[in-house]
Amino acid sequence: MYTGTAVFDVLLPGDSRSLKAKRSYVRPIVAALRRFEVSAAEVGDVDLHGRARIAVALVASEAHHVGEVLDACERLVAGRPEVELLSVRRRLHGEDD
Predict the structure, then answer these.
(1) Cβ proximity of 36 and 20 under 8 Å
(2) Is the dihedral of CA 90, 69, 77, 36 positive or negative?
(3) What CA–CA distance (Å, rounded) separates 44 from 16?
(4) Which among 14, 67, 76 is positioned nearest to 40, based on CA atoms?
(5) Ranges in the chain, pLDDT < 50
(6) Which DSSP category does 90 fall into?
(7) Alpha-carbon distance 59 to 1, whole Å?
(8) pLDDT attached to residue 71
(9) CB 96 within 8 A of CB 76
(10) Which of 2, 8, 12, 80 is deepest in the core (most CB within 10 A)?
(11) What pLDDT score does 89 carry?
């Protein structure tokens, strides 16, 4: 059994000056990530208007599958034209950890 996580640090557009505007950018990204059958949520910078941290987590029987899914999630976030992906922090935990 392997678990994988990724945390995406995202810069939001300048017009996200309120939490309501911020949610209008973050919610569609989280919904799109969940199509990969991962757990996804906004996990940090909740009170900052121009930044967001979005995390995904998954469990799989093979490390290769975890890597493929996290790669797909990263491509999705990086490909969103309305936000800028600043950094990604990934972790993989196996049975030996």
Answers:
(1) no
(2) negative
(3) 16
(4) 76
(5) none
(6) E
(7) 7
(8) 97
(9) no
(10) 8
(11) 97
